[in-house]
Amino acid sequence: MKQTTRILQIAILALAFSAATAGLFASSAFAQDQAAFIGVLDREFVYKKSRAGSGLLGALSTALKKLDDEATAAGKKFREEEKKINGECKTISEDECKEKVKAFSNKVKATEDDQNKKRKALEKQRDDGRDKITKALEPIITKIIADRELLIVIDRAALVYAAESLDITEEALKALDAKLPKI
Known about the structure:
Elements: H1 2-35, E1 38-41, H2 43-49, H3 51-89, H4 94-148, E2 152-155, H5 169-179
Parallel strand pairs: 1-2
Helix pairs in contact: 2-3, 2-5, 3-4, 4-5
């Protein structure tokens, strides 16, 4: 009885293994057939390399460098002013010193607030530009989907590997450059 049960268990395992293996090969063949209906798009590449995106990123980079240079210059000026106030505080009353320190702190805070406001404006400009590119890209991707009879387009960032033949990035990039040369 034990031997019969053992043989039956082995037979069931063998049958399960055969079914799983057959399913694996069948799904592999199915996957190859279906691969023609999948497209891969590297949205980040399109965003960075398109005329509109690279122009936007270049302008933002220049503006950020200018902002950083302003912050560095302001910091240097404030350090010098702080030294001056510290020196003056040795010769004036405590109340006068507190007033100078308070005025100085308000000046520093106003400058920091202004810098933060400018940075937020640049972030908004970047986000608005990315949104414009995304909106311009949507009908392009829709057309590629229709032309190639794709069922799904997956962002390259979500993949570990995909065959080069599935990539629609260059096609989308060329169409985007023609539709939206600058922002």
